[in-house]
Design brief:
- By secondary structure, the chain is α/β, with parallel strands linked by helices.
- 23% of the residues lie in helices and 24% in strands.
- Strand 3, helix 2 and strand 4 form a beta-alpha-beta unit.
- The longest helix has 11 residues.
């Protein structure tokens, strides 16, 4: 029997996280008073027989401790910005002291060049692999196809297929290219950049909550998961208020979820509608 796979939202926040030390807005106050609403920088793990990590958030050590992750098998990167790569050095001693073999790292040439320059002192514990746009990688019964994102040079998202489900992970992107949109019709789940609420400060490289929901409807997605959320750009919202607003919307049967850090989904369940995975529910 094939191993079922679980997707874990290690982090769901934008670069500055939530709460931030410099902001006293209602969203930050909510996160201070109720830590389950705190958001670390965005990354996910796909767990089956092995564990594939997509991006290494600066809070990686804390994310792994929270989720009980003691080892991973590989890392896929979406792009080179610090909020998606800053945790890579935290893997150094796990490789040197426990794994002993270099850790496979997959990224575009632009991202690998940045990593090799900025983390040259640990490059001996990394096994780099160049990923080309539209290239498919297969590990542990899961396929990952790198798709161009509109963010920075060499940025990608990943189409992920396993357990009968098709989903995408685009934590940082503006408008997707026509070839990508055509490929992603009828998704089971769209996990997408939702950095801004209201005004989009960087429309070429980021997406709003409303924009992500509209994209989900355009693609015919069964479910949308909002990630890379700041909750205080451009209009501060508490997570509680945003969830209430989302619940009141008519999304034509499409499920829209504001995930919390640590949310776990059985990937196979994403192919089922209208059933809602129990893990969508936020428990305190």
């Amino acid at each position: 029997m094939d191993t079922a796979h679980e997707l874990v939202f290690l982090g769901t926040g934008a670069a500055c996280g939530n709460p931030t030390f410099f902001c006293g807005c209602e969203a930050c106050q909510e996160a201070l008073e109720n830590p389950v609403e705190a958001k670390t920088c965005s990354s996910i793990a796909v767990m089956g027989t092995g564990i594939t990590l997509i991006d290494t958030a600066p809070e990686l050590r804390l994310q792994f401790a929270r989720e009980g992750i003691s080892a991973i098998d590989r890392v896929l990167f979406t792009h080179q910005h610090f909020d998606h790569t800053g945790g890579l050095p935290q893997l150094e001693f796990a490789v040197r002291l426990v794994r002993h073999d270099p850790l496979p790292v997959y990224a575009t040439a632009e991202c690998l060049a940045w990593l090799a320059t900025h983390y040259d002192w640990m490059w001996d514990v990394v096994e780099p692999h160049v990923v080309e746009p539209f290239q498919t990688l297969t590990f542990d019964g899961v396929s990952y196809t790198a798709l161009p994102a509109s963010h920075c040079e060499g940025a990608v998202g990943y189409e992920i297929s396993c357990d009968g489900a098709r989903l995408t992970y685009f934590p940082d992107t503006g408008p997707l290219k026509p070839a990508v949109l055509q490929r992603l019709q009828e998704l089971d789940a769209l996990i997408h950049d939702s950095t801004f609420i209201g005004r989009n400060w960087n429309p070429a490289s980021h997406t709003t909550v409303d924009g992500t929901i509209a994209l989900g409807r355009t693609l015919g997605a069964k479910a949308v998961y909002l990630t890379h959320c700041s909750l205080h750009y451009d209009e501060p919202h508490t997570a509680t208020a945003l969830r209430a607003e989302l619940a009141a919307r008519d999304t034509g049967g499409m499920r829209v979820v504001l995930p919390h850090d640590g949310l776990r989904l059985n990937v196979g369940d994403l192919a089922i509608l209208p059933a809602t995975p129990a893990s969508d529910a936020l428990s305190y």
